[in-house]
Recover the amino acids of this structure.
């Protein structure tokens, strides 16, 4: 059974290559890992083609998902989209709902989010777009330890292959600063879904003149921070940026960073991938917002 290319080019998009598929009523369905994964042209006005893929995130009911957005006319990537994703169980309306989460843009038409469901079963996934135009996309999907197909069959023992889009940024936040502090630090987790090592080579921010990867190292018996050329993320693994270790230094702040605010960070990787995201500013336990700081040297960590 062949998948019908919505772009009419006879070319299966990257997200579908090498996947086992079934087609029911013009809806293409991917049979992946722990749950049923639909891929379909579902925007009512035909404004976008949405392909979505998820994998278990290691915690019960938690999933990491990536979404690909394409223009149905040209097949080109839709960049700069802004939307939120929520979920509800159709069989128990109002009883089991997942509050919408903000989707992060990863570049080249790819977007990602993490969602924690409340139980296995059928969920209606809702994508509410504010850009490039107001739109709503809804699709019912089956999540569970044993995969259930729409034809009533069961698929077991099929191991999910992680998406090869590269590195995804998770759990990112920026440390709040006291008045007059010129520097701040960003912490996060880099997870590499590719089959080769990938490097974070540069970072940009809208609140700092310079954003650089830094690390802590012993020098003459003292712990000092140093700039590093890149940060390695092993294939299939992760690299944690945390206080006292690797981190992103934001130098030359244009304003004070207060808890509850958001700043923009843009990550560039050596595979050509670019990921832009809005990151929350948080207060670190034990940190004083009024204590004095050396404005010439960044000693936050």
């Amino acid at each position: 059974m062949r998948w019908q290319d919505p772009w009419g080019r006879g070319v299966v998009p990257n997200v579908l290559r090498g996947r086992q598929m079934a087609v029911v009523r013009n809806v293409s369905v991917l049979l992946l890992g722990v749950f049923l994964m639909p891929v379909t042209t579902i925007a009512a006005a035909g404004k976008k083609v949405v392909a979505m893929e998820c994998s278990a995130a290691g915690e019960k009911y938690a999933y990491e998902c990536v979404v690909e957005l394409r223009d149905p006319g040209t097949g080109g990537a839709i960049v700069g989209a802004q939307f939120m994703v929520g979920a509800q169980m159709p069989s128990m309306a109002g009883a089991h709902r997942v509050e919408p989460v903000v989707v992060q843009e990863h570049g080249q038409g790819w977007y990602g989010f993490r969602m924690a469901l409340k139980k296995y079963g059928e969920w209606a996934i809702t994508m509410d777009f504010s850009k490039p135009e107001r739109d709503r996309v809804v699709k019912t999907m089956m999540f569970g330890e044993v995969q259930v197909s729409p034809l009533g069959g069961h698929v077991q023992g099929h191991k999910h292959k992680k998406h090869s889009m590269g590195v995804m940024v998770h759990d990112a936040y920026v440390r709040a600063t006291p008045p007059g502090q010129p520097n701040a630090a960003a912490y996060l987790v880099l997870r590499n879904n590719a089959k080769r090592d990938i490097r974070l080579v540069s970072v940009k921010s809208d609140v700092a003149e310079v954003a650089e990867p830094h690390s802590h190292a012993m020098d003459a018996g003292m712990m000092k921070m140093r700039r590093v050329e890149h940060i390695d993320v092993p294939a299939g693994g992760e690299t944690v940026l945390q206080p006292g270790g690797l981190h992103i230094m934001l130098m030359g702040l244009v304003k004070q960073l207060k808890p509850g605010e958001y700043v923009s960070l843009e990550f560039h990787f050596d595979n050509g991938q670019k990921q832009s995201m809005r990151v929350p500013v948080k207060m670190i336990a034990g940190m004083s917002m009024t204590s004095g700081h050396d404005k010439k040297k960044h000693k936050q960590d």
Q: What stands out?
A: The chain has no helices and 23 strands. Confidence is low (pLDDT under 50) at residues 1-46, 146-164, 288-297.
